[in-house]
Design brief:
The complex is a heterodimer of chains A (141) and B (100). Chain A has 4 helices and no strands. Chain A has helices at residues 4-11, 25-47, 51-76, 80-110. Chain B is elongated, with a radius of gyration of 19 Å. Chain B is 88% helix and 0% strand. The longest helix of chain B is centred in the N-terminal third of the chain and has 35 residues, at 4-38. Chain B has helices at residues 4-38, 42-66, 72-99. With 100 residues, chain B is mostly helical. Classes of the chains: A mainly alpha (141), B mainly alpha (100). At the A-B interface, helix 2, helix 3 and helix 4 of A face helix 1, helix 2 and helix 3 of B.
């Protein structure tokens, strides 16, 4: 009952994870998968034909990859507090990454960055030519 | 210890996982740098910088595991937050430049 070792192993989710040299199977799979998705994001960023496709590739796959690595790192330490910290990283990434990419895409579209010549649809194409000026003046930003 | 060979096998596979993940992150960083240098427009370079920031957050998480320093997770958290500020500032600059 008062065995300190029992208390120590109860504090960690999995006793084998308390040893830093042992990597659990789940964190290993998570970080490998995360690294793979991050690599896919970079390949998409390099190979996609126009800015908007590059942006969606980098943002979506990159967010997923980093989220997997973060949760793998949180699970590796085997304590609830670090898992919560990893979940916080993921929450902030999922909140901010789409906003950032949307801001860049909007600014690029207003700067008339061309779409890929084989793109089939542009939902903003019918808007008046001076649509960007309908926004608040840039000084207010 | 029942089997020393088993333990070394496990350790070898552990460092192999770290090494493979690190290699994938390094390759992703190289590709993003390629886009950063080549990118025809400024927005392409901003996106490349954004992904480089993502890769940095992932690398910090990976380093927290290999160095067994769980406090580095807080560093990754702050880096993820700062990253958004930088990208948003760049986007506002792009918008302002195209409006004028």
């Amino acid at each position: 009952m008062s065995d300190p070792g029992a208390v120590e192993s109860a504090l960690t989710l999995d006793p084998t994870l308390a040893d830093p040299s042992v990597l659990g199977l789940v964190p290993a799979a998570l970080i490998l998968l995360g690294g793979g998705f991050t690599l896919l994001a970079a390949i998409g960023l390099l190979r996609m034909p126009d800015l908007y496709m590059r942006m969606q590739s980098a943002t979506k796959a990159g967010t997923l990859g980093v989220a997997l690595i973060a949760i793998g790192a949180g699970a590796h330490f085997g304590r609830a507090e670090f898992l919560i910290e990893a979940l916080l990283i993921i929450a902030f990434l999922f909140l901010t990454a789409p906003i950032a990419s949307h801001l860049i895409a909007r600014a690029a579209y207003h700067a008339r960055t061309p779409l890929w010549d084989r793109s089939v649809r542009d939902d903003l194409a019918g808007l008046p030519e001076d649509a960007p000026s309908a926004e608040p003046p840039p000084d207010r930003l | 210890m029942t089997g020393g060979a088993e333990t070394t096998d496990l350790l070898a596979s552990v460092s192999l996982v770290y090494l493979a993940t690190g290699a994938m992150l390094a390759l992703a960083l190289a590709f993003s740098l390629g886009r950063l240098l080549r990118g025809p427009t400024l927005a392409d370079r901003v996106i490349a910088l954004d992904l480089i920031g993502f890769i940095a957050v992932g690398a910090i998480g990976l380093f927290a595991m290999t160095a067994d320093l769980p406090s580095l997770l807080a560093v990754a958290l702050v880096a993820a937050l700062i990253l958004f500020l930088g990208t948003a500032a760049f986007a506002m600059y792009l918008q302002r430049r195209s409006a004028s």
